[in-house]
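retry 2 of 3: previous attempt timed out while embedding pyridoxal-5'-phosphate. Reduced batch size to 1 and resubmitted. Inputs unchanged:
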Amino acid sequence: MSALPTIFAAESQPDLPLHEQLVRTLRRAILAGHLPFNSRLPASRVLALDLGVSRSTVELAFSRLEAEGYVRRQVGVGSFVAIAARANKPVVRKTAAGLSQRGQMMVEAGACRDTKLPSFAFTAGQPDTTAFPRELWGKLTQQRWKKDGQTLMRYGDPQGLPELREAIAAYLAQSRGVACDAAQILVLTSSQQALQLIAQLLIDPDDTVWLEEPGYLGARNAMLSAGAKIIPVPVDHDGLNTDISSTLSPPKLIYSTPSHQYPLGITMSLPRRITLLAQAAQHNAWIIEDDYDSEFSYDQRPLPALQGLDQAGRVIYVGTFSKVLFPGLRIAYMVLPPDLMPAFTNARSAFDGHTPQLSQVVTADFMAQGHFAAHIRQMRLLYRSRRDLLVSCLQPLASQIQPININGGLQFAVEVTAGKESAWTAAGIAQGLALRPLSQFYLGAAKKEGWLLGYASLNNIQISSAVNTLTDLILKE
Ligand SMILES: Cc1ncc(COP(=O)(O)O)c(C=O)c1O
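retry 2 succeeded.
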């Protein structure tokens, strides 16, 4: 008898039809890694006997999983798991903790920070906090505390401080071509909070979500924790491949990073943007536009946001100060179609009230007084020089690793073109390098081998010393 009946018995949800229970159980077991990539599922006849259900129930469940991309079936050979679970995901035992089904889904989806990686070179997504004007920030904080301390100590507007929303709306209109006013801005703690709110408010269990492949784990986790059925949509040199998406089941929601695809760094082309918007309008689906680091575009002006092209009001734009200011600040925002704002403000207030008032008002001052634009300009120059240095330091390794799409951001991806990603990753981590494998960002079986190399927070000496370590371990092989 296979291990499946045990999983099945432990997870049974008696109020659902049997084939549906089986689909959910298998999907969850695959995503949790209990059924590894390429493992063979029992024959439907055998499984039906083991479970005491009809063979057509099992057939129905297998066909559903095949249509969703979780299972590959080969006539005369068998059924196999078609996707790999996320690497490094903790194995969750269904136990004791008494978690709700939602809680269990959330824990199984995984956390967003990989605490196992060393925190030095090449951590991705880190701005240089040593280059931040801390004294100026401290002065602005003191001024506001002195002037408005009493008000700032009280409860604030769950939608966000009006001054900050005004400043964000003006910045987005001018720099990102976003069409919005302050009434459409919801100030949050993080983009992650935005993704969770969207998942909780717009996604029901089993709703289809298209996710870029490879894609951002924070988005994947948020959607999985709401029970979404994720369909990975491959990206190519023009971004999310809308030719492929046009053949997929209609989505309720699409997650995308059009300015600077995460993790591959591609800019989505204009024709693709227009097609994606048309597909969203056709299916009445929402698009999340995660514009996390477009300010750092080094070789050309970034394309304006997708949101500004949207005629149908389907785009939810998400931005963050984690990269342009500093991640410990914990301020991000979303731009919502007006109809959604009451529900989102309500939910935000129900989850955690609001973002701290003092940091909101200081951020608003920092923006209104021109420091924000100046800081971005300076950081763009600094990070560009670090990008250039990293590219040139990697030259001697050109026959083993190739940078891809180096035009912007705080990191770029490199592809391992000859060699062993996993062996080098382990050796690099042992030597203190935060080598984040590209394979982690894929749901399907076809993956690029390589790493995401963060450089923005490393000074020149740190960059060359980290590349020396990497070079030693690659050339030693
Ligand atoms: C694609 C993407 N979105 C958003 C974020 C920022 O998230 P937060 O605002 O939650 O710090 C990151 C950070 O690494 C990211 O890579």
